[in-house]
């Protein structure tokens, strides 16, 4: 068991103060914040592998855009879910309603593709994040923190680094994400010959704690010449209206050019106790539909949210490469994409019975939920399968569990001011891409930075915000 040398305490405190100084933090109460959990040194990746993933991620964005705009495919794919997942059933109905007339919105696909590098199979997709695809700015801050430590405290940094001589992998997430979103906002603004600066609207959850990551993106957008505002769905219900030629207007602020949903992936985001409704959350869900009926760049469209759900991911993994060309990929692009799609199978009566004879440690049971807390592991899988009713089967899928190799050296994680040595740290790599109506929106073929989340291998939930993970960065070996 590795111990933390006493003389490292001042360096750890310097790192904590750097994080707070640079907005690398989570809100804990009114006027109170704590630093985001972080590793004190980066995780190692082979340079060739990183370049391959960086090239593959934009193809995944291209694929998901094609899926999100294929109305017939999505309706057919998601129809079985309606009875097993009420929320996604309502999204399917909303998708049908929105597309009952020609759509005006500009699809802005701001996506994070999450990979895990299995020690035997290589990197595979865990999930696509197409709504509330956040933490890019925190990914950049983790890289910058490691740069600060490497330059100012090299002895301590090198003790916790994965190798004696490493080069940090640059992470331009804030600049690239801001550039791409600003590009979409300016594109819409030009259509209306508006003399004001473009307006970016972030739809947020009321009272949430993960606000500083959002503010870092807003700062990047303001530096790019874009006005930024934050609103909840409840506020927007009373503040949005229609202008000429499909212009979306926000009270007291004029035309809206780009929208980014950091909310909308769960019922509580649409809940308003002061509204009288026939069905739960119906009014605020209609507010979302109202936005899509206007000429505004938006992420996530309902189609994008459906296209990145686990049900569609499972269907894409079972399709041969030739069928993926339906969504705009060339055959060689489709074949490359297939190498990163992990094994998934649908849950039905046959697979539930088949699972009884399987090693439960080889699989993960997933529903359609976003964020942490929606996966079932190990001995808990069989009882959950037995609890499911037949009409609920289609809302669940089984994914082959990935087992990445642990970091070769002990790592140091810092959470809420406390440092902890981890001897079995594993990492998950999220790569950001941005497409505007299917076209790469950054100067690097759509690539827009990365997010590394690291955790002990014994921990199931590795999210930085909702799990036991820590923000991390990447490094390669020096030649």
Q: What's this model, at a glance?
A:
By secondary structure, this protein is of the alpha+beta class.
Top CATH class of the domain at 43-139 and 166-339 and 405-412 and 423-477 = Alpha Beta
Return the structural class: alpha+beta
Which fold name fills CATH's third level, the topology of the domain at 43-139 and 166-339 and 405-412 and 423-477?
A: Rossmann fold
What is the straight-line distance between the termini? 31 Å
What is the β-strand count? 25
Please, what is the average pLDDT? Answer: 94
Number of helices: 16
Proportion of beta-strand residues: 15-25%
Q: Using the alpha-carbon principal axes, give the shape.
A: globular
Low-confidence stretches: none
Query: Portion of residues in helices?
Result: 25-40%
**Over all CA atoms, what is the radius of gyration?**
22 Å
- So, the CATH homologous superfamily of the domain at 43-139 and 166-339 and 405-412 and 423-477? Glutathione synthase, substrate-binding domain superfamily, eukaryotic
Note the main sheet.
10 strands, mixed
Please provide a written account of the structure:
The chain has 479 residues and is an alpha+beta fold. It is 35% helix and 24% strand. The protein has 16 helices and 25 strands. Strands 5, 6, 8, 9, 13, 14, 21, 22, 23 and 24 form a ten-stranded mixed β-sheet that branches. A four-stranded antiparallel β-sheet has the order 15-18-16-17, covered by helices on one side. The longest helix is centred in the first third of the chain and has 22 residues, at 47-68.
